[in-house]
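re: the backbone from monday

yeah here it is again, tokenized this time
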């Protein structure tokens, strides 16, 4: 594959950033004690800036959500199946999210832009505008419900009425570092105002730092994880994300009447490797951290081949 191929030029920088973190962790330039603080920096500061700024320019009436809702229907179906198959618990919810949440920003934008042009990016941006809101909020609600049940079963919390548990889970899901900036940005966008330069510029710089810092953090965590022990599971996660997810999206899209660039963009988006947000999610909830960290790295490397395969085959059925 030539170095200027869209897949290579999009994925290799991601692999290199993970390697930078891996080396920094092995050399103890970033110690274990700092990982939690860096995770909080990414999740509670950089993510907030990225999500709010992204949503602050989304005008709902100008977007075509019909193809995107099919994408989310496929993701929700796959999430549910993975959750049930792996045993309905909070750890399984994090792993199910790994099989459905794509790296649409850092890899998807340059890849789609280089391969298919500006028109294709419009659909990708529509997907990105709802990607974190729909999938991370869904996963948060499920996780909060499952954790509440597990705490009751372990005797760590009193048993509540089912409706009270659901209400608390929804509240925890909304009052959460992911949905709050998305909702705030979306509400701001509907006012018709624009962010003043003095506010927009710092948000842009913080948002741009999210991807590199998060991926370096993946590498640091990888340096301290038992990857060999997790490799088989990480390869399975990577296969689900980069092969099964796009296959299901292609079948559902074809059956739903999608054709042309819309089908191509959504299937390629489904084939992208596991997004760094899933890694941060596992760190925040302290569930399957080593497996998810390895899964992010393995799926990124595997995507060099799987995304190329998807980009070669999907146009054949999209016309």
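seq for it, each position gets an aa:
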């Amino acid at each position: 594959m030539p170095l200027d191929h869209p897949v290579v030029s999009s994925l290799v920088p991601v692999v290199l950033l993970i390697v930078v973190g891996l080396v920094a962790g092995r050399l103890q330039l970033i110690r274990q004690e700092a990982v939690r603080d860096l995770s909080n920096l990414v999740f509670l500061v950089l993510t907030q800036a990225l999500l709010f700024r992204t949503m602050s320019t989304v005008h709902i009436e100008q977007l075509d959500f019909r193809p995107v809702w099919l994408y989310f229907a496929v993701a929700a179906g796959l999430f549910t199946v993975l959750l049930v198959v792996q045993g309905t618990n909070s750890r399984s919810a994090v792993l199910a999210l790994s099989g459905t949440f794509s790296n649409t920003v850092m890899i998807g934008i340059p890849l789609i832009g280089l391969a298919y042009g500006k028109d294709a990016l419009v659909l990708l941006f529509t997907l990105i505008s709802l990607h974190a809101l729909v999938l991370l909020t869904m996963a948060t609600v499920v996780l909060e419900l499952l954790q509440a049940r597990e705490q009751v079963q372990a005797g760590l919390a009193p048993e509540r009425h089912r409706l009270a548990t659901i209400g608390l889970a929804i509240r925890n899901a909304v009052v959460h570092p992911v949905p709050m900036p998305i909702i705030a940005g979306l509400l701001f966008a509907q006012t018709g105002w624009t962010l003043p330069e003095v506010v927009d510029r710092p948000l842009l710089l913080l948002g741009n730092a999210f991807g590199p810092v998060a991926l370096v953090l993946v590498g640091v965590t990888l340096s301290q994880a038992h990857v060999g022990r997790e490799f088989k599971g990480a390869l399975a996660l990577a296969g689900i994300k980069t092969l099964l997810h796009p296959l299901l999206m292609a079948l559902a899209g074809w059956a739903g009447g999608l054709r042309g660039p819309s089908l191509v963009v959504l299937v390629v988006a489904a084939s992208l490797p596991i997004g760094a947000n899933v890694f941060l999610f596992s760190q925040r909830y302290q569930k399957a951290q080593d497996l998810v960290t390895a899964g992010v790295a393995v799926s990124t490397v595997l995507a060099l081949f799987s995304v190329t395969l998807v980009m070669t085959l999907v146009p054949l059925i999209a016309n």
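The chain has one domain: 6-318. Residues 118-153 form the longest helix (36 residues).
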